[in-house]
Amino acid sequence: MIDSLSASDIANEISMMRSVFKGTVLVVEGVTDSRLYSKFARKETVKVMIAHSKDNVRRSVTECLTRRGDGKVVGIIDKDIDALIGRKKSPPLFGTDRNDIESMMMCSKAFDDVMSEYADPEKLKAFEGRYGRLSDAVARAACPVCLLMYISYKRGMNLSFKDLDHSRFVNPHTLETDIPRMVAEVYAQSMAQMYPKQTIVDQIRNIIRSIEDPWDAVRGHDAVSILALALRSGLGSYNAKYMREGELSGALRLAYGMEYFKKTELYASSDSWCGSRGIDLWVTRRPGSPS
User: Any idea where the domains of the chain sit in the sequence?
Assistant: First the structure.
């Protein structure tokens, strides 16, 4: 039923809401987005609505503004591979600093807060002594998956990344990704492909060499899954023995406070744009006050 919701359905729901609610409607992609942004939204004057897809956010916000004249609808979407393919967005649509909320949180001090709870201090120190900062190692391990998604998009390969098992191609002790095996795993769960695996492997490696910051090409889902794998495989303390992706994502959301969110470009741009129009959004401003 949720899958059948269209952008017009979301816009209609917002329009019907206007008889009883005159404040700001913040439209987000999914449940976890709602959980995070609801922490920072001004509850008295802002309602968070889940659109259930990135496209629904984009289209419903545009429809509310252009066709229905509703200037108090704001949308937040994941950057995903938009930066890689050159796709841009403009207010009232805003994007995450990194590919999504998970990667955005993992690039903040919330990552260190969560690791202080779940990582074994001595094992973490030994790991970082050999391989560098854990967050950097996670980014390097996750980056090839996102780049394969980018290549799939550019070449029209329609590869399937659903339920990808990262343990089949990521070494949980070194966090090194076996790129040929990763490509083979994705190919195995996708339709027959015309491009040889080695051609795609070589292209991924070439792009990696051109990227300054691996986090620019990391999907948060992959990063969280790989980190959870490392914690379960020996890097974690006793309370991380059975750590799963959902639990780790929840811990990051709990640790990610307003002091971290305020350092993002997402916060700065949305706060400035809404403030200049007297639109309430985040809890850091008095209701209805300009920026």
Answer: 2-97+264-276, 103-257
